[in-house]
Write a structure and sequence with these properties.
It contains 4 helices and 6 strands; from the N terminus they run βββαβββααα. By secondary structure, it is of the alpha+beta class. The longest helix is centred in the last third of the chain and has 12 residues. About 5% of the residues have low confidence.
């Protein structure tokens, strides 16, 4: 479960208290009745879907009920920053460098072996590899 920082309540709360409210910093048309169908489609339906840092709008439904913006890394699903609606968008390069520093990528972590399989699983895998029938009295799937 994620802990999301609400910039208005000034505390981290569980993700269940929040609702995603779409892409942040979408420019709304001044007079929506006067725009073309193509411009309305771009405004209303078309959203960016970046791999990396995405700026999103969230709402603290079960708290202060206020909207705020968040910068989230869509690759690893981490919140990099949350900020009030009236604050400017944080710099993407600074957020990316901060995310890199927080990501533990040691050689030891990369080469950690997978956990051992239970003995029964190992035996079934070995029989399947050699295609020998199971011993009498042993049930197979």
């Amino acid at each position: 479960m994620f802990l999301i920082h609400c910039p208005y309540c000034e505390e981290e709360r569980p993700e269940l208290e929040f609702r995603h409210a779409g892409e942040a910093h979408v420019a709304r048309p001044d007079d929506i009745a006067e725009i073309s169908d193509e411009a309305f489609e771009r405004y209303f339906f078309i959203r960016s879907n970046p791999k990396g840092i995405a700026y999103e709008r969230w709402r603290h439904i079960h708290g202060c009920a206020r909207f705020f913006n968040a910068a989230r890394d869509t690759v690893n699903d981490r919140f990099l920053a949350t900020y009030r609606i009236d604050e400017p968008k944080p710099d993407a390069k600074r957020l990316a460098s901060r995310a890199e520093r927080r990501r533990p990528q040691t050689e030891a972590a990369k080469s950690t072996p997978a956990p051992a399989k239970p003995a029964g699983v190992q035996a079934r895998a070995a029989r399947a590899a050699t295609k020998k029938p199971a011993p009498k009295g042993v049930k197979t799937r």
